User: What shape does this take?
Amino acid sequence: MTTETSKPRGNVSDIPLIGFSGKDKPSSDVINTCVHCGLCLSSCPTYRETGLEMASPRGRIYLMKAVDDGRISIDSEVFQEQMGLCLNCRACEAICPSGVQYGAILEASRAQIEQRRQGTQAKPEAEPTTAVEATPAIEPRPWWQQALRFAVFKAIFKDMRLFRAFSASMALYQRSGVQSLVRKTGILKLMGLDETETMLPAISSTFTVPQGQIYPAEGQRRYAVAMLTGCIMSTAFAEVHHATIRVLQKNGCEVILPPDQGCCGALHTHSGDLDGGRELARRNIEAFEGLGVDTIISNAAGCGSTLKEYDHLLHDDPAWRERAAAFTAKVKDIHQFLAEIKLNREALGPLPIQVTYQEPCHLAHAQRITAQPRTLLKAIPKLELREMHESSLCCGSAGVYNITQPDMARQLGVRKVDNALATGVHVIATGNPGCALQLASELRRRGEEVQVRYIVELLDESYRNSGSR
Assistant: This one.
């Protein structure tokens, strides 16, 4: 398995016992909540693929506890490797009888590794004294990885103007013929980027730029909602936003796109940059405050999950704690919201297609939303829903996981598409951009013409088919 972590220098016994320290330490109370019952094993994608105990939630919590207790070092290869190999899909949380908040301690562990790698981790109370114990911190990443992380986490995803400019350049790359030329040269394979480049979505020709637009409800206004436009959803998946707005309007919602909002911070928090995630959270909270809306809508599972956890992310910030709690209390996933209100079923037209539903991890496991998407699909006349095997097992996308852990991501993507195609459907429905990209990439690799669609797109098409537009 290829990982970003460096090999330990010398014998295992030579690794200094550097433990968790400073801010963002994984909670000892949460770590000790695990009773090691093993019920999480069957739900863990990496355990199911490898059969290795250390590649399970229970095994990783054991490693966290060993670092917390001072029995192994945060510098150890096995600890770094397993914190990176985990998908953070949260399937273990959904099944855990003890209620272990696994996502929180995993993200904190990754933050500790990043602090150690960058030399910003607080020094332990007892300073190392021997030459062996004084071994330097974790070796830094190669320069190109450092440059990539800076571009992603410190620049592009922090400034939506840069993100849209980057997206526009990718659209030009695709439509100008350069993409085809580059692929033919084989340079992508030489750089090890051929698999990653196939994940690039077809960039929309029009972006969703939030500028305070207000879209009126159709008929009597029942609700006022604000919608997160985010980053990749507002560029590569802008059409999904358009469909979402039309569906909300059809259900009596006035839709507001507040300016000054941006990326939700999911990639930052999942990758150990919790400070970066907090910065983005504060910006979004400020952008959505004072609008007087009933609900804040997210149509991407990973974004919605992150928005709903802003209160945890900022719980140690007295200036933002209450503001974050007020924000998260209003956040709802689009499927959750539409299922809770009285859906306008009368205006739905026939859509005679066969569909299977692939459950995004951060919708099914992190937000515990499983029945609502199916309810919406079944509301569409003539649509046939065929359940797939292992619908809630991670597809291998997990943010940037298919870049940092391509082998495992590929295995899981193959497994997911195998299960989907076994249903014989024409459409795989989902609700998250990463999942959509992962599934579409594997389908293209096989030459399959099966479509990947968002549930809200299918609802929009059904409303259009009713002839009421």
Remarks:
- Residues 1-13, 125-136 have pLDDT under 50 and may be disordered.
- DSSP finds 25 helices and nine strands in the chain.
